Amino acid sequence: HESTFVFFNDAMFAQETTRHLIESNMHFALSKQEFKAFLQPKFDLKTGILHSAEALVRWIRPDGSMVYPDQFIPLFEKNGFSAKLDIYMVEIICRTLRTWIDIGYPVVPISVNQSRILFYHPNYIHELQSIIEKYQIDPSLIILEITEGTAFDNTSEMNEIIIQLHQLGFEVSMDVLEAVILPLTH
Fold it and tell me: Are 170 and 142 in contact (CB under 8 A)?
């Protein structure tokens, strides 16, 4: 007979409590549109001209408090909720682009993160196509940003999905997790 001992400290208890609160509120938060898209502009370093933007998800509660991305994103990737959140973010961005186009604002492509789970979901491409058609958005305005880890899970399947996405007009980029240091030229 073997015994196992587990010791909890205050930090572990707080972390577990936070995890439980996030998981018990994630569906409600999505239905109440507590997840917001913030756009991070991307400029051409040579010209200084805005060429695109990246959609960043933020969870803002009705009282104005925020659940930080490092608290919920890793958890959502583990429990599979990231698939719903990623599709939701594509829809928010398409709705925003449609509004800007209707008003007459100039638009640039916007990248939206796509989780590993979602990228291999059998209805993924159909869901994307439905959202694009609903808002009448040119797919080239949406850059699907996949993480480096997703790309190396199953190379042949990944290539097939990327080909299908390109055929529909989507751009696909890879979000490299490691920092890249470029030499500065004078």
Answer: yes
User: Do residues 140 and 109 touch, judged by C-beta distance below 8 A?
Assistant: yes
pLDDT tier for residue 5 given thresholds of 50, 70 and 90: low
The amino acid at residue 179 is: A
Tell me the DSSP string of 66-106: EE-HHHHHHHHHHHSTHHHHHHHHHHHHHHHHHHHHHHT--
Put simply, whether the predicted model's pTM sits higher than 0.70 gets the answer yes
> What is the tens place of the pLDDT at every residue in 110-139?
999 998 788 778 899 999 999 999 999 999
The H or E element containing residue 108 is none
Answer for the pair 51, 108: CB distance below 8 angstroms, yes or no.
Answer: yes
Q: Which stretch of DSSP H or E encloses residue 30?
A: helix 10-31
The amino acid present at 31, given as its one-letter code, is S
Chain centre to alpha carbon of residue 78: 14
